């Protein structure tokens, strides 16, 4: 089994066509399992509603059904509250601490937030942003 971790920005690219979508989809095709923090469901649904498009809401649900949502455990919450470099916003800290908690269960990390990518790298993990030229 090959598992890929997706941050909220990556998840949104799977139901809302963006410049990076084709590259991300191509990369994900080699991973049998997609995982993310359970908070990604709130982020994805909120984004779809904010954009006000029923098709996007349906697409968000379709994508979320393909993702194994990881519970935000006490240890994940505690790690998210600790320092990362660079300092992260709360939701990005949850993504970073979830990635760290998963350890060997994941083979790839896909993120589109520059600070989150740097923080994960600072923890010794490589993250990718397929199709994004500046990250």
Number of helices: 7
Q: Would you identify the CATH H-level superfamily?
A: 5'-nuclease
Largest sheet report: 4 strands, parallel
**Total number of beta strands:** 4
What is the CATH domain class? Alpha Beta
Oligomer: single chain
What's the architecture, going by CATH?
3-Layer(aba) Sandwich
Determine the structural class based on helices, strands and strand pairing. Answer: alpha/beta
Distance between the termini: 28 Å
Spatial sequence of strands, sheet with the most strands: 3-2-1-4
Q: Would you tell me the overall average pLDDT?
A: 94
Shape: globular
Please trace the helix and strand order, writing H or E for each element: EHHEHHEHHEH
Here the CATH topology equals Rossmann fold
Summary keywords:
four-stranded parallel β-sheet; alpha/beta; 7 helices; 50% helix; 4 strands; 135 residues; Rossmann fold
Molecular structure report:
The protein is an alpha/beta fold and 135 residues long. The chain has a single domain (3-122), classed as 5'-nuclease (Rossmann fold, 3-Layer(aba) Sandwich), CATH 3.40.50. Helix content is 50%, strand content 12%. Strands 3-2-1-4 form a 4-stranded parallel sheet. The protein is globular. The chain starts with a strand and ends in a 13-residue tail after the last helix.
């Amino acid at each position: 089994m090959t598992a890929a971790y997706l941050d909220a920005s990556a998840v949104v690219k799977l139901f809302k066509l963006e410049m990076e979508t084709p590259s991300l989809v191509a990369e994900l095709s080699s991973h049998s399992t997609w995982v993310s923090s359970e908070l990604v469901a709130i982020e994805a649904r909120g984004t779809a509603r904010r954009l006000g498009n029923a098709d996007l809401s349906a697409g968000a649900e379709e994508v979320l059904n393909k993702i194994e949502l990881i519970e935000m455990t006490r240890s994940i919450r505690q790690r998210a509250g600790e320092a990362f470099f660079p300092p992260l916003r709360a939701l990005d800290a949850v993504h970073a601490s979830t990635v760290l908690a998963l350890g060997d269960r994941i083979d790839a990390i896909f993120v589109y937030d520059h600070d989150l990518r740097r923080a994960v790298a600072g923890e010794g993990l490589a993250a990718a942003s397929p199709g994004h030229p500046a990250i």
